[in-house]
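Key idea: predict the complex, not the pieces.
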Amino acid sequence: MASYGVRQLLACFFGIFVFLGNAPAFAAEEIAIGVLQPLSGPNAKFGVSSLRGSEMVVEAVNAAGGIKSLGGAKVKIISVDVPTPNTAAAATQRLVSKNKVSGIVGVFVSSTTLAVSEVTERVGVPIVTFAFADQITERGYKYSFQVTPKGTIFGNAQLEYALDIAKQYGESVKKIAILYEDTAYGTSQAKGIRVAAGKNNLEIVVDEAYPLGITDAAPLVNKLRASGAEIVFPVSYLNDSLLIIRTMRQQGLTIPAIGGAAGYIIPDFKKGLGELADGTLSVASAAADQIPEIALEYKKKYGSFMTHEAISHAVATDALIKAVEKAASSDPAKVRDALAGLETCEGFARGIPGGCVKFDANGYNSVTFPLMVQWQGDEPVSVYPKSVAKAKAIWRTQK
Amino acid sequence: MSKKSLFISAVIVAAALAPFGFEPKGHSIRVLSTALLFAAAAQSWNIVGGLANQISLGHAAFFGIGAYTSTLLYLKLGITPWAGMLAGAFLAVIAAIILCIPTMKLKGHYFALATLAFAEVLRVVANSWETVTGGSVGLSLPYVNPSFIDFQFASTYWYYWIILVTLCVISFVFHYISVSSLGYKLRAIRENEDAAEVSGVNSFAVKMIAATTSAAFMAACGTIFAQFNYFFDPESVFNLPGISIRVAMIAIIGGIGTVAGPILGAIFLIPLEEYATAAFSSVAGLAQLVFGCILILAVLIQPRGFMAFCSRKKKKPQNSDVGAEVGQ
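Result:
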């Protein structure tokens, strides 16, 4: 008969025991904040700049003397890579039970955020997020806070703002096209666009979902051309956005493209497309030109402009730290209560339209709204609505 | 009681008592539970992958069917996930039959590719059939007061014990199959299907029994995974590297075709991966690099899996042996 290796099994079990038992001890005089971001995998770019946003806030707080209500306690970020939703639960649990975090910031990706928030709710630790999915603050959860607009609001703004800009140029739009990737982010934003299109009696001539990471956008673009759409609304992460815009412009399709944030407003978009990027519009939750001093500091430090996910996560981190200050405690439950009653309109919070963080009963920051940016030169510039615009929107830059 | 069964009982008792060394809501017990859950899933895979040498890269299909069936029944009809687990296993059996009829005659890479495509098809379906599956946004288990009937517990101990029992059941079934006539037939087919057929083995029926048993257990693991994580989306349960390849890898690293192989593999790989993520998170992607290097090393040092160490020590494997013999 075969050997079943029971001895090895036993040895292994004890090995695990020893390994898991010897956790690093936690230093009491520091306030630990967990930052969960995808630092590897397809969304790593976004995760890295999001983490930078959080780091910048913590450095600023520590340089200014730490948390005053806690005797100048320093804030420490504990960052964990969560490339997929499957890794989220264990990572969250570790932050809570090993690192004793007072709260968590993240995750750039909606589905991973949902996975994290299921755990944080059950262990009673607040999470402040920038993720778009509507469900995050619609489940009646007490420990989830969303600092930036939800997906459907984003989708609605993407269309309404575009129509307003078109109107300024005396153009009327009747046919639109929606291209979106079939992720939580893509579908919820597409839903918002669809609803807004219905309200404005627009005909949706293309409504096409495609899987993340397509390698050829030509079929999509051909469909777009044949449909006679007057505006296209692509919602996608980086590589797909490059592919779609490049294929469109190379085929001489000049209709305005209004991107759905993510890949459309990061430095790589310009790097990948060069001149072709100019004039592309996109919705965003924040823009660097809203907080020029902070953005300049960021640029000096990291060498590229401050993206909207970096700003938004800075706002989220800032809100969490302010809540710790207000609660005068590192206890997650007290921090959660402080977050619920928080109102802050200074510093990093000015980076998002509305300039404030103030959560409603569901934990949604209802004060803020999306804005429209446009690639004019090397950076996206705020162009709409008027209250936050720094430059005039240009309709049809392409000949 | 033989010396061996005494050993096995001791291991099970030790495993059952293990949680008391950990904080009930802590991280360690969670990692250990995840390891055992993946051990159970790898053991299910081992029934077709190990005994019949049908390398499936589509076991995520059954895993996802289990997760979706129980969760949807619970969310839409209020049926307890325990019953949902059985329903999921039943659907997985049907799926396995549908998958098996056209792919049964395929061998090696062709079989692997066909199964891979099957899981991918289900992922696309789950993504786009929004009215039923909730689409790409995924499904969340509602936060209710912990109770046995809702399959939700405040302490991770309970999940751990449920997973441990599942692992034991699957392992015993695996052992039972491998020493029964079915196991001999499966091995005969693995060695030479034509010869087995000539000797009177009904290869179609034998493979079908193995495939359906494996699928049913994999679906049960999917249900437990959903309950344990509270959230999943098509991307997480129908995942190729995250589920399909992972269970195959665990079984292969541990020792394909052996009872202890998947358990050893999971207990080694899952905590190691978790540890790598914790220790090397400071540099993006470093954790995966380290983890990948260790995997490559493990395969280079012992291509036949950890179990090969003990069989080599004792005796050379024979053809009738349940032990570690792969790669023929």
